[in-house]
Structure formats: structure tokens, C-alpha cells
Amino acid sequence: MALLFHIILFKTKMFWKVTTARSMQSVIKNAASFVVFGSFAVGGFFFARFTTAYLLQHVQVGLFLFHRFIAMALFVFFLAINLGNMVVSYSTMFRSPEVHFLLTSPVSHLNIFIIKFLDNFFYSSGTLFLAGLSVLLGYGSYFGMPWYFYLFAMFGVLVPFMLLAGCLAVIVLLLLLKLAEKVSVKGLLAALIVFYFLQIVLYFTVTSPVHLVQEVMKYYPNVNLYFGHLDPPLTKMLPNYWAAQILYFVIAGRFDIVAGYWLLLLCASIASFMFMLAAGNKLYYSGWLTSLTLRLFSFKSKSAKKSFLSFEQHSHFEPQTEVLLKKEFWQFFREPSQWIHFSIMMVLVIVFLSSVGALDVTLQRPQWRAAIYLVLLTFNIFLMTSIALRFAFPMMSLEGTAYWTLRSSPLRIQSVYWTKFLILLLPLVIVSLCTAVISGIPFRGFPMLMRLSVAVMALAMVCLASLNFGLGAYFSNYTEKNPIRIASSQGATLTFLLSLTYLVFIISIFFVPLVLFFRAMYFNEQFHAVVIIIATAVLALLTALVSLTAHAMGVRSLRRDF
After folding, report:
1. DSSP letter for each residue of 370-429
2. Among 477, 466, 474, 533, CA closest to 502
3. Residue scoring higher pLDDT (330 or 244)
4. Cα separation of the two ends of the chain
5. CA atoms within 13 A on the CB side of 331
């Protein structure tokens, strides 16, 4: 135990030493970080307060329906944390060189397991804590909550909620590695993807947001009543439901009910943590041994030579472009965490689009239609932001010291930079356009909205890809081989916050035009499309400015480093 304490203390000192460097560049970076983090916190506060006020006062959804929307958002949040921790834990707990070193030291396997879990949990949770705090401040300030509410909501609700998701992810990972000794890894991965896919489909089929809204609106204007009889029994066993119920009954002043749900969430978190420790004590070392021989896929030499992207095959591209394209392809698929995480994110996108495509927007009030359209657009852009951060930001750093090989070859460094960016941009734009078209199906009666979705998603994807790729080159770390840790670094956090700021800007400039549009359609009035055209032009101008600035920083940084 003493050795465990010394290891944790050493890692804390190393973190403090790195983050308190005295150089001018570090001072400037920390000052910029403070400004960006502070701006994001303030922006998140006002955004959460405005959203709460708009839904409760203007749209008049009522407290019950509002907190059911929160429960649905928490369900997606829980799965995102769960899947993210599963992928990250595989890299940090089993594939990390630090783990290989620690296993040769006189430290028990359980202590190493605990160290890596806590390291992974706190390292990747900083941004989520900041976002959660700013949203809770905005939410609580609307209801005039006292200061101790925020401490309770953050450390009594949000932290156990996130801990429960992280522990369950590690438990599932340990079980998968145990099964991998006897079962095909491909089959396990396919079963895992199907399992999570069915969870999401089942949840949103059972809860049915549109059906819930229609049932509650039958009691209009008495929408602030408690409609607990509308909650499906299955959802009452889920932690996102407990967290939403805690917030609802705190606002309602029913602290006796709050205590019951809070104890339920706390006991579930503690039980999952204890079960994770028991599973780690029994399965961690054997799982590590399995990971050493794990082969997620293999290629036969003959089939590889026949592949279009094989280096033995020639294409219509000029030689330098051809070799860069093929190098990027094989470099991506040689790292299992890359394509596994990408596959999981694509499954989430497909699930979201399948549920949106079947959505029937039959609500008559223009505020409701504007809110639903903005929610769909916001969630689409947020999904693309997450994908861009995870894959665009680490892309330059993953080249590592191999850049010296590229620099010694007859290649212009700008060619390497732009080839990488175009390889990245093409699939992201295709996915974003698919999300725009499918999410516009519920509004197919309004062709202008379909065109607006496509235009906004295309502009947003160019901006987000440029921002993450350019700043990923600027904050590059050529010694780190784990793409997930690169995407969780301080520079990545700053980039993510800037991306969210861009997202909030999109919502702010299109909110009024969309409300005016739906109001004109509702009252059968003439709508001047120039309002939306001007907003789109402003977004295009901002996109060009941000993209060019990010690429200028990225190219300059690449020249400086090599």
C-alpha cells in the first residue's frame, strides 16, 4: 500500500511539474487556456440558463417533460462515457508501456489496476466536470438554487453517475478479454456492437419522446403536474432515470424522495466499484497476458497484394500522392483502437439517424418545431465534433518521429499536411451530409430547411475538421503513441471547447430566423428567406476565418518542429 501511495504521489508531482513550467511559451499557453476555459464556462452557464428558460417559459414543456428530456440526454451521456472508457481502458490498462514496466516492479496486480483506472478516469474527466459544472450553474440559477445544491449535484450525483459508467465499462472489458481466450475476437466485437445498438434502439423505442410529448400535452396548460404513470417500468431501473428524478424532486422540494434515489445511485456506484475491484483482482493479469497475443485481424499475403491499397498495386494518382494515401490507410488500420472506436461511433450515428428518420413532427406550435429542428441540428454537429476531435486532432501526432523520414524524402511538407487533411475531410463530410439529409426527413415539407441543414453541416464539418486538424498539429506530441490520450490532452480540451463555442454561435445566429420561419408557416404569412441567407453567409465567413487560421497555425508548427 505504501508503494501504491508513492506511485500516485510521483505521478501527481510529474503532472504538477509539467503543468507549472516557467517558460514564456508555457505562461502564454496557460493564460490562453484560462481564457478559453473561462469563456466556455461562462458561455455554458448562459446557454444552459437560456435553454431552461426558453423550454419552460416559451415552449412551456413543464417540469416533468423537461426532466425527461434531461434523462434522455443523460442516457446518451452514460453510454458515451461507458464506451469511451472501454476503448481508453484497453489502451491504458493493457497496451501501455507503463503497465509493462509496473508489472516488473514489486507492486501487486490489483494496485496497478487501481492506479491505471483512477489515472484514466480523472485524466479524461476534466472537460466533463467543467461542462457539467457550467450547465448545472445555469440550470440551478434559473430556479434560484442555493450554493450547496451545486456541490451536491456535482459530487453527489454527477461523479457517482460517471463512476458507475466507467466501472461497468472496465468490468465488460475484463470479461471480453477472458472470453477472448476461447472465442473469436471478431465475434465478440460484433456481439458488443449489436448489444449497444439494441440498447439504444430499445430505450428510445420504449421512451418515445414524441409519444411522451403528445401524452403530456393532453393536459395542457397543467403541464407542471407529475406524470410518473407515463414512465415505462424498464427505464426506472436505469441510472439516468435516478439522476433526472433527483433533479426533479430537488426542484419540487421533495427531499424525502431525493434521498431514496440518491442512495440508490450511490449504492449502485459503490457496488460497481467493488465488483470491478474483485474482477480486476481475478482477471486483470490474465487479461493482460491475453492482450499480448491478441490479434484483432490479420491479412493473408496474397489477398494483401491484390488489394487496391496495396503498395504493390499502382493507381491513377501520381506516385507521391499514391504512397501517402496508402500509408495513411494502413497506418489507421494497424492500430485497433482507431478502427474499433470509429466503428462504435458510426454505430451511434446510425442509431441516431434511424430514430430521427422515423420521427413524426406533428406538433403545431412554431416554438416546438423550431426547438426540435435546432436540437437535431445541434446533436448532429456535436456528433461530428466528437468524431473530429477523436480522429482529426491526433492525426499529425501519430506520425511520430517518422516525420524525419518524410522530411528526408523529396516531399514538400505542405503536401504531407494537405494530403492528410483531405483524406480526413472526405469521409467526415460524407457522414455529415448523410446526417443532414436524414435528420431533415421530419421536415421534408419544408425544402428550405433541408437545404439549410446540408449547407450548415457542410460548413460546420469543414470548420471543425480544420480546427481539430490544424490545432492538432500546433499542439502536437510526437512521442505519444496512444491516440486516445492525445485526444484527451490539454490542447485537445482547448480545441473541443472552441468547437463547442462555434456550435453555440451556430445556434445563436439561426435561432431567431428559424422561429420567424415556423411562425410564418403556422400563420400562413410570407417569410423573407434573406434572413436565413444572411445568417448562412455570416456562418460561411466565420468558417473561412477559423479554418484558414487553424491551417496557418498547423503548417507553421510543422515547419517549426521539423
Report:
1. HHHHHHHHHHHHHHHHHHHHHHTTTTTGGGGGGHHHHHHSS--HHHHHHHHHHHHHHHHH
2. 466
3. 244
4. 44
5. 20
The answer to whether residues 483 and 342 touch, using CB atoms and an 8 Å cutoff, is no
Handedness of CA 306, 310, 311, 315 (dihedral sign): positive
In this predicted model, which residue has the larger pLDDT, 84 or 170?
170
Residue with the bigger pLDDT between 373 and 169: it is: 169
CB atoms within 10 A of CB 346: 14
Other CB atoms within a 10 A radius of the CB of residue 200 amount to 19
Euclidean distance between CA atoms 209 and 430, whole angstroms = 28
Going 268 to 269 to 271 to 275, the CA torsion angle's sign is positive
Confidence (pLDDT) at 4: 45
Residue 12 has pLDDT above 60, yes or no: no
Which stretches of 293-359 are DSSP H helices?
A: 301-306, 319-333, 336-357
Rounded distance between C-alpha atoms, residue 526 and residue 240, angstroms: 43
Q: Which amino acid is present at 517?
A: F
Of all residues in the chain, the percent with pLDDT exceeding 70 is 74
Largest CA distance in the chain: 77
Cell numbers of 79, please?
453510454
Q: What is the pLDDT of residues 413-458, one digit of tens each?
A: 677 788 888 888 888 888 888 888 877 777 777 778 788 888 888 8
Phi, psi of 307 (to 5 degrees): -65, 145
Cell digits for 352? 441516431
Residue extents of the structural domains in the chain:
33-294, 320-562
Q: Taking the alpha carbons of 103, 109, 111, 117 in that order, is the dihedral positive or negative?
A: positive
**What Cα–Cα distance (Å) separates residue 144 from each residue in 65, 136, 137, 157, 259?**
20, 12, 10, 19, 21
Q: What angle do CA 406, 410, 414 make, to 5 degrees?
A: 65
Using the predicted structure, report yes or no on whether residue 16 has a pLDDT greater than 50: no
